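Worked example
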Amino acid sequence: MSITTARKGAVGLAILEAQYHVDQFNAAYGDILDRGDYAAWVDLFTQDCLYKVIPRENHDAGLPLCTMALESQGMLKDRAYGITNTLFHAPYYQRHVIGVAQVLTDNGVEIKATANYAVFRTKPGSVSEVYNVGRYLDVFLRTPDGLKLKERLCVFDSELILNSLIYPI
């Protein structure tokens, strides 16, 4: 085996390992949101994180207008508090289905990845409906506690969100 072949094999294994960790993170992310554990959702992010929900049209055009933009873990905590203590709305459940991640880069400290998602909503006594579909554009940091999101852009495909955006995507 040549040195070049060995390096390619090592790089391939590193990407597969990163993809495994990102996929496991995304599975936990969806589960946390589906259970409504918003304090645990906040803990998935770094202190100086960025979380945005943005229409595809704006993202693709480079326009900054977002449906939701939270620029620190403190802002995520405020959102979690609002969801659990101050917002009043008809109850519904969410179910996240997150596709296999594509790791774009991994420098050993930071992983850039993308994954498609679909969020379904079910109101008690009603049928399930597609709530939001799009893709995550992520920047993860490797920490002693595992991966943390430094940045998550939820780029959704539709031009509208049904009713209002209450729970994180």
